[in-house]
Known about the structure:
The protein has 3 domains: 2-95, Ubiquitin-like (UB roll) (Roll), CATH 3.10.20; 139-212, Alpha-Beta Plaits, CATH 3.30.70.20; 216-568, Rossmann fold, CATH 3.40.50. Helices cover 34% and strands 15% of the residues. The protein contains 18 helices and 21 strands.
Amino acid sequence: xxxxxxxxxxxxxxxxxxxxxxxxxxxxxxxxxxxxxxxxxxxxxxxxxxxxxxxxxxxxxxxxxxxxxxxxxxxxxxxxxxxxxxxxxxxxxxxxxxxxxxxxxxxxxxxxxxxxxxxxxxxxxxxxxxxxxxxxxxxxxxxxxxxxxxxxxxxxxxxxxxxxxxxxxxxxxxxxxxxxxxxxxxxxxxxxxxxxxxxxxxxxxxxxxxxxxxxxxxxxxxxxxxxxxxxxxxxxxxxxxxxxxxxxxxxxxxxxxxxxxxxxxxxxxxxxxxxxxxxxxxxxxxxxxxxxxxxxxxxxxxxxxxxxxxxxxxxxxxxxxxxxxxxxxxxxxxxxxxxxxxxxxxxxxxxxxxxxxxxxxxxxxxxxxxxxxxxxxxxxxxxxxxxxxxxxxxxxxxxxxxxxxxxxxxxxxxxxxxxxxxxxxxxxxxxxxxxxxxxxxxxxxxxxxxxxxxxxxxxxxxxxxxxxxxxxxxxxxxxxxxxxxxxxxxxxxxxxxxxxxxxxxxxxxxxxxxxxxxxxxxxxxxxxxxxxxxxxxxxxxxxxxxxxxxxxxxxxxxxxxxxxxxxxxxxxxx
Length: 574
Ligand code: HC0
Ligand code: SF4
């Protein structure tokens, strides 16, 4: 341990700690901007590029960046001298001198770390206003907008994309004043191997990286009298939407959300969790089929579109191992425009399906040509949790004051298995709850697979089914997925089934969720919310959902049968 004094407070911290970490342990706040400590991922943005966190160290002439300066025995630090305060303000003024000052109409207005810091440091004047860098906006993709005029070169996106996700799309190109975070050769995003996971957007402190805003499209649909507008909400939305209205992270707002969506004017308010149960019927049947007929193993889950795009680009020699199941919200779209349309006597052409998702890649996924019927998309528009909050605020709907309401039926009822899709490990746990019973003809008494839960990057469990040990693995974050896939390719892993979600934590940490600003505790609370909702459900196995049973009886026939194949399965492309 090392003894340090900060602002006359003493503390002993582990050797190798930074001044910032020691100050945190003493509850002394030092402002930061580029710093990002994703401790759940054991990942820190180490570039120390902004110099906002400078402090004075006794005996040293220069100010030291607290985030990147290790402590030493007897170190004496002062964090709040006039020299520090002036230096921080100066750094910020210089950053702002090359930043568009259009906060009033900025996508990140009131959610921008640069804006908050300018307020905190009492910046009232931008000195040295000189040349401004000018870059064209990249609006080429369906998911992400790159506006490099707003980039402050903190490099958080680079850390996320290259170190955590190992996709290597964003890095600094050019030099000096012309430096910009961009794909190689400055290619438009849609021409790159970007997975649209949105993790770069999730950590961007400004509006340099934002989502494609689909809110206007949804308003137009709601006010088009010819359209029957259906909405579905992803599992992870209900544990995060409340944050935008002042609730604690992880607060379950399922019933309030259903009520709010009705107030917005949707004609039918449904739940993607229902379709998650449907996915389990198909995925568990596919897994059982592969197990019993010597099919290709391991089977990989296929519901995360960023993960799908990742393996299409990076593991194109292994396209025969992922499950062919469409993702739940896409299955929902098809069922809405076929089964539900028939049942309700609606013309599918007039049905407009909106998905509320914690995810940016779902926007890209909905536009994939494979996910259409007669050229009509299964899902018409995807908005994120943040965009739904924006719509509610525009309509003056105060979510937290609403009385709980139920989803509509028949596409609104779900089991606990459908809910846990929202957290890493949940999809495979849900699949096990069903596959176990189908393969053994026995009741699964203990439905909680604790080994598959939590934030460990790669998790494993072995389940005995009919005397055989079935080996399961779970990875979240694409870097972890890459490690697993490389082991499989090299013949070093003998798993039977693997779940992969692109975002750290799974969908609860999706790129479309309320910004966590690097506070990983928020993800932990959202995860708790997911498992609480599962525990509270009367039905916790997908195949016991009565509306799912009815859907197969009335319309689909057998799970993994001919009709289900045509409507609910897809294929992958190199
Ligand atoms: Fe997910 Fe999904 S669980 S990907 O994370 O499978 O986005 O929440 O909606 O479709 O259900 C996201 C979350 C979903 C889908 C489901 C899956
Ligand atoms: Fe990288 Fe994901 Fe951002 Fe694409 S969306 S640039 S893959 S972090």
